[in-house]
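User: Fold this, then the next.

Assistant: Folding the first:
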Amino acid sequence: MHEDAGTYEDAGPYEDRAPESVWGGTKGPWWRRGPASAPRLWKYPREKGSPGAPLSTWAVGGTLAMARSDRVEAYGLTTGDPLWTWQPPDGEVLAHASADAPDGVGVVLHHCHADGDGDAEHVRLTGLDVGSGRVLWSSEQRADALGSVALGGGLIVTARPGHGDEDRDGPPALRTIDARTGALLWERPVPERWGHVSVVRAHPVVVSTVGPGEDAPRRLVVVGGETEREIELPR
């Protein structure tokens, strides 16, 4: 909706007030404007200091939940009534949230910054029931062992880097976890020829690789449990 009424006729509180030229004249390129048919039902309450854009939003049934850096809060989808709020424990902050919530489960990654240090030693993944705010599962581990993470499509995908101490951490590996339960679905070692690996997308699983060596090619690899397809990127 255009807020600048300018010198144009007042067309009502929810009707477009832009001049005809904005829409391409009488032969609009794709579609014609008209009276708005979807009035605003509710508006998110303004806070002192902008909280910034949510990390993610989830709409499940009659619930709209928003994951922010300090909390996850839910409202009635059509009413705006507050339903529930969840905050990470011990002053932790949310760093990542799943792009969607299949089966009504949203996943957040949270950790604690000590003295403002951006490198967290431990991180926790938590699965929330969007309808009730109930914690369904939670798992903590060392951040350096978790590696890069992607969330979405009901999956959590992590690329664990190698540390040299394979007895403690295991070799570099790619893992997929069920977002509904936190259970491991499959794990496979990262081929040595892939070199450095970071997860780009969880569903389907896509990783970015840079092979060892100064002139190593960069690739995107689409990965299944036992299959893969490589796409070499231009230099």
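Now the next one, as you asked:
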Amino acid sequence: MKKVDNDAEYFAWFAITKDKCTQFIYQQPALLMTLGYLTLNLSGFTYLWSLFDVFSIEIIKYMELSDFVMAFLAEPSILLASLGAIIVGGGGVYFISKINIKLSDANAAKGWKSWLLSNRLFYCFNPFYSLVVIATLIYPNIYAGVVGKWNAQSIKLGAMAPYNIDLINPVHVGRLQQYHFQNMQIIFESGRYLFLFEHSKGRTVVFARDNIASIQMATQGVDN
């Protein structure tokens, strides 16, 4: 395609790409579901990386493939944010398609009304793909990263529910062996590990799930 240098060509580029993608998705609907699932997984990984980074935990060492595959379920708001981004992106495609009809006869950008689209920097990028990336990748991942930081800070401030943990086999903490840990806040539960933060001592502890005998809320009785 020749170099785009005006609004009419820019919107035409958008329309051509949209029609091609729509036709391809209509023929291969499973691909759209796969891409959507991968997008959610990327947001989930961003959330976990942001959460664990505050506690200086290298998640790659502990997480398995199954944990990453379902990572977006760690924080339900990530799923809602991703769905919201898809809706916004779809609305943006519809809106721009309507603008395309109105500006189809335009020869060149004039004044401030089309400054964003007439800037030659934007002419270098496919407008349809740019909208898709912003709406379905950039926004959900930024949101997931921010939520991860917020949740980590809430845990460090002691805002989450405390738990008492009993172990089957003792673990070494400093020079001592301990079976019982009190007032621990859960950071995350993976398939094999339980990540905890001890607010009173400001330390992070990782237990293998197979070594946990019982977990009770610290504010309730043993039977809970």
